[in-house]
Amino acid sequence: MNDCSYIDKPLSLDTLFELSEFFKFFGDTTRIRIIEILMSGEISVNEIAEKLQLGQSAVSHQLRILRTAGLVKPRRAGRTIFYSLDDEHIGLIFNTGLAHILHKKGA
Amino acid sequence: MNDCSYIDKPLSLDTLFELSEFFKFFGDTTRIRIIEILMSGEISVNEIAEKLQLGQSAVSHQLRILRTAGLVKPRRAGRTIFYSLDDEHIGLIFNTGLAHILHKKGA
DNA sequence: TCAATATATGAACAATCATTCATATTTTCA
DNA sequence: TGAAAATATGAATGATTGTTCATATATTGA
Predict the structure, then answer these.
(1) Entry pTM
(2) Which of A37, B61, B65, B75 is paired with B5 by a 20 to 30 Å CA distance?
(3) How far away is chain A from the Cα of B73, in angstroms, using its nearest Cα?
(4) Interface contact B52, partner A, CB < 8 A
(5) Protein CA A1 to sugar C1' D16 (Å)
């Protein structure tokens, strides 16, 4: 039932560091907004910039961070590059966090 | 089955900002290590500082952040204050992130 | 009440980081 | 080939943040 019970396993300092680094990627408004957009499917850099009303450079910088971290992946089509979520865990973490704050709001 | 499907609901800028702020709490090594310790049960400030080999002040500062955010709660017993996780979602998010990076490592 | 213990907090400093600006790279189409 | 379009990147800057040091608050026991 619960396949997420790592509680009792001893976690190395290294693993805990990686874990905090991983959550950092979700800890920025621009990146969270990009991730939310990507949850609806793949989309180009310019379209993201338009939707977020942000500069192309800012979006590209954040996409590089997300790409390097393995959260999103690019697909080239001509001169356009489409981005999409790389891993199914990304959406799950997004939604679990969302469930938490919506739950807190409702309470 | 999946009670985390908020994908299609329109999310306000405000909610997305809160969500990124929420993930920020997991995006620091010291806080993640504190959360991991707290997953085994309540524990005092000094004990946390000892386990982490950190100054009492640093731990107290991070605990205040976690407490203000509603991730941990204090219980006073004499002059000792014991902290524990406030919400069941916290452990779930911790473990989902952990599952992700362990999965990536195994691949 | 006074000293000792446990925790909290304010200020300061160093480090990290997101954005902007300018420019580089890559691809298409005329 | 050469201009235009889409994306990437390096440097600079302003803002945020974690830690440390010093000190404050709170509680216990003598």
Answers:
(1) 0.90
(2) B65
(3) 15
(4) no
(5) 40
Q: Copy the structure tokens of residue B15.
A: 């909610």
- Could you tell me whether strands A72-77 and A43-44 are parallel, antiparallel, or unpaired per DSSP bridges? unpaired
Backbone angles phi, psi at B29, to 5 degrees: -60, -45
What is the helix, strand, coil percentage profile of chain B, to 5? 60, 15, 30
Residue B23 tokens read as: 């993930």
- Give the pLDDT of chain B (107 residues) as one tens digit per residue: 344 444 456 899 999 999 999 999 999 999 999 999 999 999 999 999 999 999 999 999 999 999 999 999 999 999 999 999 998 889 999 999 999 899 888 86
pLDDT band at A8 (very low <50, low <70, confident <90, very high): low
Task: Tell me, rounded to whole angstroms, the distance of Cα A70 from its chain centroid.
Answer: 9
Helix axes A29-38, A56-68, angle to 10 degrees: 80
Please tell me the distance in Å from A26's CA to the nearest CA on chain B.
6
CB atoms within 10 A of CB A8: 7
Residue tagged 């019970």 (tokens): A5
